[in-house]
Amino acid sequence: HELHSMWQTSSVTCIKRLAYLLLLLTSFLLLTCSGEKTCPNSCRCEGKIVHCDSASFMDVPENISVTCQGLSLRNNDLHSMLPYQFAHLNQLLWLYLDHNQISIVDSRAFQGIRRLKELILSTNKISQLHNSTFHGVPNLRSLDLSYNKLQELQPGQFHSLRKLQNLHLRANGLTVIPLRAFIECRSLEFLDLGYNRLHVLTRTTFLGLSRLMELHLEHNQFSRINFFLFPRLGNLRGLYLQWNRIRVVNQGLPWIWHTLQKLDLSGNEIQSLDPVVFQCLPNLQVLNLESNKLANVSHETVAAWLSLTTINLAGNMWNCGPGICSLVAWLRNFHGTKDTSIICSSPKHLQGEKVLEATRNYIYSPLSPHLPQPLPHPTIPSFTDTDTRGTPPPSNSLLVTLSPEQENLSFHKVIVGGVALFFSTSLILTVVYVSCRRYTGATRLLQQHSVVGRKRRKKSPEPEQNLSSQMQEYYMSYNPAATPEAMDVLANGTSTCTCTISGSRECEV
């Protein structure tokens, strides 16, 4: 009997508990169904995505569905993030809170949303974050804190974010990065620290970022960059250092950085380039040196630019003297993307001229790569190619090496000159031939006259030999209107001459 009573009691208890559980399950289902059908006022709901942008919210709306996976609260008037504010939205995958007035973020504000993968807090007024603020979102892939007022990062700020791939800290006013700040961000591929006030880096700054592919450090206050600070960034593809105060870039202990493909050093104060830096970057493809203070580039440096496909050299202080010949020769042979409008700053008579045009009278000689060689002007071959003593020009002038464009131009000029010479010679020979054929009789008459004149000079005495031969001048005059008989007499020498010696001899027919 007692056993029967106990069995009945336990049965009743089990039935009551089962009924209670069914009631709770029904209530949960009703709440879920009602939540899916609700959408906060001034918001737009698309399935499990809720858009509450630009609605002047001062707090997070309360009646957001618990199944919400994406929530956007951009361009509102939120001022603070309270503890567990999103804990009831444990299905959230992304949360956009940018362009608000948020200045306070509680260290437990993001507790309860462990599935969150993207968090955007940019363009707010956040000046400080607790070092455990993001410990509740270990699955975060992208975190954007740019355009806030963070002046420092707390030690261990990102220690729980082992899956983080993109971190934006641009435009915050950061002056220093804590030691090993990103040590646990093993999956980080993109890091933006641009537009801050950083002026020094250490070897431990980027420790642990073995997968980092793109690093932005532009618009900071660096004055010197040593590539030895980045030896552990073995997967980096792009390094952006533009618009700092960099005067010197060196390598430190040499090591080959095989992965780096893009380097931006524009807008700095670099006056010279260390060839060792580029010898350690064998796969560099894009180089930007615009707006620095470069006057020339050494032969060793351009010789290390083996893999470049794009280069920008505009806005420097180029000296178009002998020192620029190595760079000019390299640019003429470079077939990638380049800015050909680089301008000379000196010497004074070449200021404002394009470098490639100002140096067109010089070519690069492999025999003396540091000295300019005057560009020879090809001419038509002639007897004037020798000097007054009949000595040919020095053979050293033939040692210059012409560029392909100059060789083509010289070859064309030689061809044109040769053709002109051929036609001129042909024309002269033609005129001579026609003249000989047409005036054969006159030619014979002149030849006979010449022979008779020589015979008469031999037979006739020379009474004036005592006179100074330097003072004597011989003239022969005849009447052009004479008759043909007179011409015949002149040719046959049968007429007499009357001569008068008075310092000269005059003959009249």
Automatic annotation (TrEMBL):
<feature type="region of interest" description="Disordered">
    <location>
        <begin position="374"/>
        <end position="399"/>
    </location>
</feature>
<dbReference type="InterPro" id="IPR032675">
    <property type="entry name" value="LRR_dom_sf"/>
</dbReference>
<keyword id="KW-1003">Cell membrane</keyword>
<keyword id="KW-0812">Transmembrane</keyword>
<keyword id="KW-0677">Repeat</keyword>
<dbReference type="InterPro" id="IPR003591">
    <property type="entry name" value="Leu-rich_rpt_typical-subtyp"/>
</dbReference>
<keyword id="KW-1133">Transmembrane helix</keyword>
<dbReference type="InterPro" id="IPR001611">
    <property type="entry name" value="Leu-rich_rpt"/>
</dbReference>
<feature type="signal peptide">
    <location>
        <begin position="1"/>
        <end position="35"/>
    </location>
</feature>
<dbReference type="Pfam" id="PF13855">
    <property type="entry name" value="LRR_8"/>
</dbReference>
<keyword id="KW-0472">Membrane</keyword>
<feature type="transmembrane region" description="Helical">
    <location>
        <begin position="414"/>
        <end position="436"/>
    </location>
</feature>
<keyword id="KW-0732">Signal</keyword>
<dbReference type="InterPro" id="IPR050541">
    <property type="entry name" value="LRR_TM_domain-containing"/>
</dbReference>
<keyword id="KW-0433">Leucine-rich repeat</keyword>
<dbReference type="GO" id="GO:0005886">
    <property type="term" value="C:plasma membrane"/>
</dbReference>
<protein>
    <recommendedName>
        <fullName>Leucine rich repeat transmembrane neuronal 4 like 1</fullName>
    </recommendedName>
</protein>
